[in-house]
Design goal:
Layout (H helix, E strand, L loop, with lengths): L2 E5 L3 H13 L3 E5 L2 H10 L5 E5 L7 H11 L4 E6 L3 H6 L8 E4 L4 H7 L1
Helix pairs in contact: 2-3
């Protein structure tokens, strides 16, 4: 099973993602901001998947993902947003090689992306 870092400042999103992913056996870390994500990345030996909101404070999801990838370069990145993909691409883009999961997502969608 994977070790997943969920970065989102919406408590309901992190709560649902955590419950769904843990139920199928994944280990989940939750960060409400870029700073928390960076601290978790530094203090964790393994992160396989990063699920990051495009507008996670205080920076962009791409910046947060790139920082976490410096410590965990093999992690896969899933960007989430309530905005369409084209908005994300116009606001700094997505992490190269990442995927996009639009909000609101279903439990089946998050499971299949991870």
């Amino acid at each position: 099973m994977a070790t997943v870092l969920v970065v989102d400042d919406e408590e309901m999103v992190t709560r649902v993602a955590c419950a769904v992913l843990e139920r199928v056996g994944h280990t989940v870390f939750v960060a409400g901001s870029g700073e928390e994500a960076e601290l978790l990345a530094e203090g964790t030996d393994r992160i396989d998947v990063i699920i990051v909101d495009h507008r996670a404070p205080p920076s962009s999801g791409r910046e947060i993902a790139e920082h976490v990838l410096r410590k965990h370069p093999k992690a896969r990145v899933i960007h989430t947003s309530g905005y369409p993909r084209m908005v994300l691409e116009s606001e700094g883009g997505l992490t190269p090689g990442s995927s996009f999961l639009p909000k609101p997502f279903t439990t089946a969608q998050i499971r299949s992306h991870v």
